[in-house]
Amino acid sequence: MATTVNNPAERRRRRNELIGVVTSSKMQKTIVVRVTRQIRHRLYDRYVHVAKKFYAHDDQGEARPGDVVRIVETRPMSKLKRWRLAEVLARRTSVD
């Protein structure tokens, strides 16, 4: 028999999470996060780095360029923003 779950939090699916580096924080409440992953090239059988940019909502303005952050998928907030900042994992260590 199928059981029904009354708690809406348990019914929702788990949100996607990504870890990347902040490349820009010049916009208001928005950061640009670069997520790099490795894929295997089919023909040459080598690993290739592929990067993609994600626009994420940063309500508190706590992320700065160079920080390693974790972003989670959320509802569409604008034309490009579909992610929000979950936490800052590591701060930038070098001083410009």
Q: If you compute it from the alpha carbons, what radius of gyration comes out, rounded to the nearest whole angstrom?
A: 17 Å
CATH homology-level superfamily: Nucleic acid-binding proteins
Low-pLDDT residue intervals, each spanning 5 or more residues: none
**Biggest sheet descriptor:** 5 strands, mixed, barrel
Number of E-state strands: 5
CATH topology: OB fold (Dihydrolipoamide Acetyltransferase, E2P)
Second rung of CATH, namely the architecture: Beta Barrel
Describe the structure.
- The chain has a 5-stranded mixed β-barrel with strand order 1-2-3-5-4.
- It is mainly beta.
- The longest helix is centred in the first third of the chain and has 4 residues, at 8-11.
- It has a single domain (12-90), classed as Nucleic acid-binding proteins (OB fold (Dihydrolipoamide Acetyltransferase, E2P), Beta Barrel).
- It has 1 helix and 5 strands.
Question: In a few lines, what is going on in this structure?
Answer:
This protein is mainly beta.
